[in-house]
């Protein structure tokens, strides 16, 4: 799964592929249920940056609590699951990230967090979905999103068996294309090549979402 990530790097790929000058205040410990930036098709064409609640609320949900269990969508079933299939067809998005955290199970209750980032420092684009839900009690419209996850690549597999689906930059436009066929979209949800990434162990302080700061992505010795 992908349950924490960070934004702090320039996103050269977004500019090169989408001509989008994306910038965000640095955030080093983004957690589910927070509002996060997403990139999606704009209503009048082109692309736009929007803000969405992390935890997708399907348009048919009775209340927003379902979002606690939909922070991630499995690549293997995203096209069929009732919570995600409509968004997969019509409301795909890119979620910019500088890197993400995964926890290695060391046995018992011990877990070591690792930070996974791109090798070139250009930023990553997670495959995501977004949805708009209207609260039946207040008529408030809420945009929400999820990050698609799939099998880990060879680099990450020794610490965790799942990894966020990281889009190839050259396919950013394809992922957002409303006419893209389903089988082609599924082909973009394969494990990111290991050579695109690097990773290192980091402080357990990242486990507390109240902690934030560049020290969270610094390597720890002896882990």
Automatic annotation (TrEMBL):
It is an enzyme of class 3 (hydrolase). It holds the Pfam family SRAP. Signal peptide: none annotated. One of its GO terms (biological process) is proteolysis. InterPro entries: SRAP, SRAP-like. Its EC number is 3.4.-.-. Keywords: Covalent protein-DNA linkage, DNA damage, DNA-binding, Hydrolase, Lyase, Protease. It comes from the Bacteria. Gene3D superfamilies: SOS response associated peptidase-like (3.90.1680.10). The keyword DNA damage applies. The keyword Protease applies. GO terms for molecular function: lyase activity; peptidase activity; single-stranded DNA binding. Belongs to the SOS response-associated peptidase family. This is Abasic site processing protein.
């Amino acid at each position: 799964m992908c349950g924490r990530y960070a934004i702090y790097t320039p996103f050269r790929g977004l500019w090169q592929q989408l001509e989008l000058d994306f910038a965000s205040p640095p955030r080093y410990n983004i957690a589910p249920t927070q509002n996060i930036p997403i990139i999606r098709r704009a209503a009048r064409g082109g692309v736009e940056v929007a803000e969405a609640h992390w935890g997708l609320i399907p348009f048919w949900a009775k209340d927003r609590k379902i979002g606690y269990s939909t922070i991630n969508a499995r690549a293997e079933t995203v096209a069929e699951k009732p919570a995600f299939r409509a968004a997969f067809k019509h409301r795909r998005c890119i979620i910019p990230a500088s890197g993400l955290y995964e926890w290695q199970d060391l046995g018992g209750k011990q877990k070591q967090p690792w930070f996974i980032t791109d090798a070139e420092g250009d930023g990553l684009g997670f495959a995501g979905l977004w949805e708009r839900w209207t609260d039946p009690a207040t008529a408030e419209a809420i945009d929400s999103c999820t990050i698609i996850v799939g099998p880990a690549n060879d680099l990450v597999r020794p610490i965790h068996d799942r990894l966020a689906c990281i889009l190839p930059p050259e396919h950013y436009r394809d992922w957002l294309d409303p006419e893209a066929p389903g089988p082609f979209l599924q082909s973009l949800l394969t494990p990111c090549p290991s050579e695109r990434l690097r990773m290192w162990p980091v402080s357990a302080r990242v486990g507390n979402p109240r902690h934030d700061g560049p020290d969270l992505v610094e390597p720890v010795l002896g882990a």
